glucose-6-phosphate 1-epimerase
Amino acid sequence: MSIEKLHVEVVKGINGLDKVVLRESRGSSAEIYMYGAHVTSWKNDNGEELLFVSNKAIFKPPKAIRGGIPICFPQFSSHGSLDQHGFARNRVWSIDSDPPPFPTSSASKAFVDLILKPSEDDLKIWPHSFEFRLRITLGPGGDLMMTSRIRNTNTDGKPFTFTFAYHTYFSVSDISEVRVEGLETLDYLDNLQNKERFTEQGDAITFESEVDKIYLSTPTKIAILDHEKKRTYVIRKDGLPDAVVWNPWDKRAKAIVDLGDDEYKHMLCVEAAAVEKPITLKPGEEWRGRQEISTVPSSYCSGQLDPRKVLGS
Ligand code: TA6
């Protein structure tokens, strides 16, 4: 295998769909379907899968893939007139062979640039010209970085407005044993209570029933502590003030056709997002939203994981 192919390769995935495989020398890897620019796998140096993808996921357009990292654009959830989560997750993206330069170039050779432009049909449901460029990079330490650059290319002089999320499904050993740190005491909109606004109480976020909340004005760093795996996911984000936390729990999981009845136990969505304050771009303007996810081993400290060690670093 050539050096380039070792780091970036386009192969056929499920149902003959094209996917890009990124590999780093130490053994980590990531897989991205061109359908949706959808990250469906992110593995560490030991080959352990870090993202949840349902056993019942349907890899067939127009259904979005259940799990991994769907891109929600130009609409998050039902916050608008488009179908749930917009259309970027169920369009076939292209390789962007000549992307405009990034201000900082990464040391990694394992990256891919993808682009989505609206089709004639897209313009009928969302009448705005745009260029959505997405760079996905696997860092030398196995961290996964995603940078979205969205530009208004309207020639009619009109601005457009959108909401956005990286709808990341993290793989967890047991949802009941997981804590999220960094969102405590923040305000959130509760999707299970007519999107009403509440303030989070208590120390950390733990899970014992369905959760579907949009935390507002969140810090740039959030941690998911998986006690059983002794693993902590760290999410760093930029340009994305909100953080959505979702787990469907047992009843709702049963109503989702492409999710196994018990699979909710092994997934947690923590989604870097811009929802409460939609983004408006004038023609020629560009928005940038970035998420970086990584893992650190976490150990017990008098019976509890010590989040300060994680969030303080
Ligand atoms: O991000 C949370 C959410 O908007 C939930 O309300 C839930 O419906 C979930 O996304 C999954 O949406 P999907 O359209 O992929 O079934």
Residues 8-297 form a domain with the Beta-galactosidase; Chain A, domain 5 fold (CATH 2.70.98.10).
